[in-house]
Amino acid sequence: MDVFKLLPKTNCRECGYVTCLAFAMDMAAGKIELSACPYASEEARKKLAELEQPPVRLVVIGAGDKASRLGGEKGAFRHEHKFESPTGLAMLVADTLDDVEVDSRLSRFHGLQYERIGLVLRAGLIALKCESRDPRRYAGVVERVKNHSDANIILIGEDPDVLSAGLEVCGDRKPLVHAATPENAEEVAGLAKQHQCPVAARAPELGQLAELTGRLEKLGIHDIVLDAAPTSMRQAFEQQTTIRDAAVSEKVRPLGFPTMVFGSDLTDDPIEESLFASVLLAKYAGLIVLSDFQPETLFPLLLQRMGIFTDPQKELMAPEGVYEIGEPDQDSPVLLTSTWSLSFLKLSSAIEQAGVPALMCAVCLDEEVDIMCWCDYCLCSSQRGDFKTGSLAGFFEKHGLKDRVKHNKLIIPGNNAEFQSQVEGALPGWEIVVGPGHENMIPAFLRNRGH
Q1: What pLDDT, in 10s, does the model give residues 130-179?
Q2: Number of other CB atoms surrounding residue 373 within 10 Å
Q3: What confidence category does residue 209 fall into, taking pLDDT thresholds of 50, 70 and 90?
Q4: How do residues 235-261 score in pLDDT, each as one tens digit?
Q5: CATH number of 321-448
Q6: pLDDT of residue 432 exceeding 80
Q7: Can you give the pLDDT at residue 387?
Q8: Each residue of 326-341: pLDDT tens digit?
Q9: At what angle do helices 160-170 and 185-195 cross, to 10 degrees?
Q10: What is the residue-wise DSSP string for 304-350?
Q11: How far apart are CA 105 and CA 126, in angstroms?
């Protein structure tokens, strides 16, 4: 109704809708933009732009396609609104570390990335903290990280001279400037405006934090990240939930920004730090700075983040394509699966367990979950959808599968044996082999076929 009140209410139908109310309903659902209305006033456009602003402002750290996006959130629960911006994970690097340790951390930063259902999971930020209080030393570490990393950068230091030295080196990378405090707000705001960078506002109480963001906005800084400086996990949890509730439910504009938490401020134990990070990741932290990255602690956080920041109203799908598992050659088996994520993961894991290099063809075949699927639910399901073969022939031609193997044998799930003849009709020249009736039989099946 808020959108409807801004429309001319003439029911002119020039937009393609019978009534302005119908137009407003689809516009509120995000299906059409106000520009489709030929008679909307300029005042209406401005008011609608305000209505469309999410309760938690979107803040971008970095430049280009790999920039980290924080905030932009519209709700507190995924069943109400999809969470928009995956929580940023940052590695902490102090300027008191020697070059060998800095290089070691950079190596871990680049090396710790993983592929999951066709998606590359990695952390994208490095937080550079000035502990030496020496602007020149700090600038040297910033330059080293900038030259040897594609990470988005967070500059940490309350001394404006230190921050200025860091910005002179990496200002073009649009780093997050941490931190503006009640004591240095004007100086830090001036630096941020000069380099057009976002700012972290840091204050120990939420009232002070809200007052500080108000000051920064008056100074022309609108891209702000909130740091409430918690000293315990309980305090961090309470702050995160309070800030999100204030921004979303109570429309408290001074707290309508993404948040950040330093894991090293909450504990000295890296395992406990990772556990705390998992809670904060689920409860609204926009950015989490970890004291270091290790595979056993980072990988679970990346998986958790992938699960949280997906649309709960849409099935998780793998990108369509041919996936090489191991180092397949022209004698390697070829298996067919749908792009449903669970089937993708089950089949790829079973092939890896078999130790048999293979080509896994993930094809979007049908909307039914049990068509060419290998997950337990679908393999045991008695329900069948209609198998459409049109996309299958085009997929095999597009990816040149006939030239990638010399045996021309395609393995399909055992529960889809009834579609064997249809697949043969769609792929002339291929022998269709019906695979196991259960996922745990796949490793033995592949080994026994002599591949």
Answers
A1: 999 999 999 999 999 999 999 999 999 989 999 999 999 999 999 999 99
A2: 27
A3: very high
A4: 999 999 999 999 998 889 999 999 999
A5: 3.40.50.11600
A6: yes
A7: 66
A8: 999 999 999 998 888 8
A9: 10
A10: HHHHHTS-TTS--BPPSEEEEESS--TTS-EEEEESBHHHHHHHHHH
A11: 10
Check residues 71 and 311 and name the one with the higher pLDDT: 71
Please enumerate in sequence order all residues whose Cβ is within 8 A of that of 215, keeping only pairs 6 or more positions apart, or say none.
Answer: 185
> For residue 360, what are the β-bridge partners?
323, 335
**Cβ–Cβ < 8 Å for 177, 200:** yes
Question: Cβ distance 177 to 163 under 8 Å?
Answer: yes
59-308 domain in CATH 3.20.20.20?
Answer: yes
**117: alpha, beta or left? (left if phi > 0; alpha if psi -120 to 50):** left
405: which DSSP letter?
-
Q: Tell me the CB-side half-sphere exposure of residue 329, using CA atoms within 13 A.
A: 2
Fold of 2-52: 3-methyladenine DNA Glycosylase II; Chain A, domain 3 (1.10.15)
> Could you tell me if 216 and 199 are in contact, meaning their C-beta atoms sit under 8 angstroms apart?
yes
Sign of CA dihedral 166, 168, 173, 175: positive
For 142, phi then psi, to 5°, come to: -60, -45
For residue 449, pLDDT over 80 is answered with no
Please name which of 225, 221, 187, 223 lies closest in space to residue 203, comparing C-alpha atoms: 225
- Quote the pLDDT of residue 384: 55
Asked if the domains 2-52 and 321-448 are classified in one and the same CATH topology, the answer is: no
- Residue 194: how many CA atoms within 13 Å on its side-chain side? 14
Angle at CA of residue 118, ends 284 and 110, nearest 5°:
70
The answer to whether 154 and 126 are in contact (CB under 8 A) is: yes
- Our CA dihedral for 144, 147, 153, 157, rounded to 10 degrees, sits at 30
d(CA 304, CA 285): 13
Hey, what are 18's tokens?
Answer: 């019978």
Residues 6+ apart with CB under 8 A from 19: 11
Q: Is the pLDDT of residue 45 over 60?
A: yes
Percent of the chain predicted with pLDDT > 90: 57
Token pair of 405, please?
A: 């193997």
Domain ranges of the chain: 2-52, 59-308, 321-448
Euclidean distance between CA atoms 180 and 87, whole angstroms: 21
Secondary structure (3-state) at 262: strand
For residue 121, give both structure tokens: 């999971």
